[in-house]
Amino acid sequence: MQKITRVRLLAAAAFVGCATLAYTQAPPTAAKLETIKLADNLYVIHNDFVPGNTTVLITNEGVLLVDDKYEIDGPNVVAEVKKLTSQPIKYVVNTHHHSDHSGSNALIQKLGAQVVTSEAARRRMVEGKQPGQSNVTFEQKGHIYLGGQTVDLYYFGRAHTDGDIVAHFPAQRVLAMGDSYANDPGTPELVDFPGGGSAIEWPKTLTKSLALDFDRAVPGHGTVVPKAEVAKFRDSTQRLSKRVHDMMVVKRSKAEIEKVVRSEFGFQDFHVEMSLDGLMKELK
Fold this sequence. Notes:
- The structure is a single chain.
- The chain has a single domain (2-228), classed as Ribonuclease Z/Hydroxyacylglutathione hydrolase-like (Metallo-beta-lactamase, Chain A).
- Helices cover 38% and strands 21% of the residues.
- It has helices spanning 2-22, 74-84, 99-102, 105-110, 119-127, 202-210, 227-249, 254-265, 269-282; strands at residues 34-39, 42-46, 54-59, 62-66, 89-93, 114-118, 136-138, 141-146, 149-154, 166-169, 174-176, 216-218, 225-226.
- The strands form two sheets. It has a seven-stranded mixed beta sheet.
């Protein structure tokens, strides 16, 4: 038991180190990728910690990806797709603007693909002068029809950022959620306040996602899980907001609030640095 706990703690610590790069620059080496089959035509290209998961839909008219990892991972993502099919990549849907989910856009655009995001995520890409900015955007709801398959895209509001979307695969009853839901070790609710995220709005956004008809969720980071796990995470986001708000009302110190989010919600140094001040400001 002690050995398992130590492994999990080391894994979480490794994630924190990598997570910092998600907001700055790519790591010096590409991630080790593993492709997991969800259905006859639906796969997840998975790796530990960061970058994010890539969901792959294969049709007889081409391939659709949801997220494409860092730029350094792009050639390996393309290689993994080629192991599955000879069909070209036609679309990349970015769940949000962070480079651990959108870093290979420019490479895949050169191969002829269109990049699809929410309008809010594209604005963040433009502000950050990111390469591979989206060609196609939508405000609240979009659909992609490819090779007899339908992918429904939804923007339900702010969560991790102000541009998070989910991609629903109705035939496979799968929802790709980006960082509005993550379950890897060391991935508590992380609000990117500079990127427009919101602790108050996050549970509301997840509640709307949970109203969709799906059985399994592909997280931004971590392993594919049943829908019930997303509901548990939604409940945790509600508890976090209430806990911090209640402490702010009785004028607890920043140090006291930090102790609580570390002990009760799994925050580590990176999460405290990224979001504690924002949480206190939003939830006062």
